Here is the input.
Amino acid sequence: MALILWLWPGREAHANPDLEFRTIETEHFVIHYHVGEEQVADRVAMLAERAYERLTLGLAHAPALRTQVVITDTTDASNGFANAVPFPRIQLYAAAPDTLSVLGSYDDWLDILITHEYSHVVHIDTVHGVPRLLNALLGFGVVGKVLGPNIVQPRWILEGQATMFESDLGAEGRHRSALFDMFVRMAVLDGRFQSLDQINSGARVFPGGSSVYLYGLHLMHYIAMQYGRDKLAELSHTYSSRLVPWGINRALKDVIGVDFDQLEQEYQAYLERRFYAEARQIRARGLRQGRRLTYTSSAGASGAHVRYPVWGPDDAHIYFFDDDGQRQSGIKRVVAEGSRIREGRGIGNQNKSPDIERIIDVEDASRPSFIGPNPDQIVFDMVGVHDLRYRWSDLYRWK
Here is the structure.
C-alpha cells in the first residue's frame, strides 16, 4: 500500500479499455467498478462509510468532497493507492493478500485495505492556514487542491499512521501481526534496529520497503500511547498549516513538546524493553529450534527472503524460492543433510552454509508447486503480465 499521484502511469500493465464500468454513490463516496465486481463494490460502499465515521473522528477532519473509489480486478497482487491532491481518490485491487505476505494478518482484508487507504485521504486532505487560502484562490473548485503539505511528511509518518489505524480501527492488521512483531523483535535482539534516518530515503536492509510501515507503525503507536491519541490529529493539523513544508522536527516539538531526536530515543528504548522482556519469556519456556539450512547475504540486503520450501521426490533435497536482494532471484534446492557449498561467494556465512544449488532463474516470488522425478518436471507459479493489461499468477513448467 502506497501513495502515488493519480496521473502516474503503471509500469507493468495498462488499463483494459474493454472493461465496462458501473458507479454507485454513497453519502461520502463515489465507487466505480467493472462488471463482475458488484458484490465487492457493495461491501466497499458499506466499509468505506464505516471507515469515514471512524477516521474523520480520529483525525478531526472530514473531506469536503466525496472520495472517488475505483475497484479493479486485473491483478493477483493485493494493494491499493490513495491521494487527496488534487481530489480525494482511492484505487483498490480486488485481491486478498497471500498468506505469507506482510499483509496476511486479517479477518477481513477489504476492511483493512479501505481503512488504510482512506486514512491517507483524510490525512492528506487536511490543510489549514496559508496553504488552505492558496488552495481556495488557485485551485479548489476548478482543478482541486494544488497544495497538500501533509503529503510531503516522511513516509514513516504517512504509512506508519495508516498502518496503525488499519489495526486499531480495522480487523486485525499489521500491528497485530506475528510476522511484523518478529521483524522488529529480531532487529532489536540482533542489534539491527534501524534509525528513522536510515529508512527515510529507502531502507537498504531487511525488511526493505516494509521498513517505513514497520518502524513508522511503532513510532506512531508510541506517540498515541505516551502523549495521547489526539496528538496524531494535532500533528496533522499543525504540519498542514505550514506554507514551507519539511519542518517535521519543529511540528513535533510544538505538538508533543519533544524534538525528533528525543522522540526517537524514547520509542526505541520502549521497544527494547518490550522485546527483551518477550525474549526472556520465550527462552524461559524453552526454545525448539531446527538446523538452519540457508543463510541470506551477510550484508543484510533489503529484499532478502527465502520462501515456499517443498520436499523433492528423493527426500534428500528441499526446493525453495530465494531472493537475497543482490543477485538474480530464483528457485534453488538445498541438500537436507550436507555441508558442501556450490554457490561460493555472497551466501553469507560460508562456513555454515549447506549445499545450495541454483535450479531456475525466476522473479516475482515464484512458488515451486510440484517437483517430479525428472529434471523437466518442476512446476511453479509466477506472476506475469498478460495482454499488456493484467498481472496474473499462472503455473509454469520448467524445461
